[in-house]
Amino acid sequence: MYVKPWETPNFGETDPRWIGAWWLGPPFIGALILIFAVLVAFFPRRLPIKDSQITDAAAKGTSNHKNTEKQNVV
């Protein structure tokens, strides 16, 4: 594709004056990154902790201080 897609040059792709449409890549990749960023933004910051995971951790003695504070608040 030529630099200006709306124009037709009077020379071919093998001519040394040919410059491809290199600038089409960055906007396309930027749009993809923007789409994925919006999708990732919908994920929660933290996953919810199940009650069974809390009791298992407490039984093993591996619960951290933050989890026990959350249990007491609720």
Account of the protein in words:
The longest helix has 17 residues, at 25-41. This protein is an all-alpha fold and 74 residues long. The chain is rod-shaped, with a radius of gyration of 28 Å. It has two domains: 1-43; 46-74, no CATH class. 0% of the residues are buried. The termini are far apart. It has three helices and no strands. The protein has helices spanning 25-41, 51-60, 65-73. The model has no long low-confidence stretch (mean pLDDT 76).
* SSE succession: HHH
Overall outline: rod-shaped
Secondary structure category: mainly alpha
Low-confidence stretches: none
Report the helical percentage: 40-55%
Strand percentage? under 5%
Count of helical stretches:
3
Whole-Å distance between the termini?
Answer: 61 Å
Gyration radius, to the nearest Å?
28 Å
Mean model confidence by pLDDT: 76
Total beta strand runs: 0
Helix/strand layout:
Blueprint: H1 25-41, H2 51-60, H3 65-73
Compact overview of the structure:
This protein is an all-alpha fold. Helices cover 49% and strands 0% of the residues.
Q: Which features characterize this protein?
A:
74 residues; mainly alpha; 3 helices; 49% helix
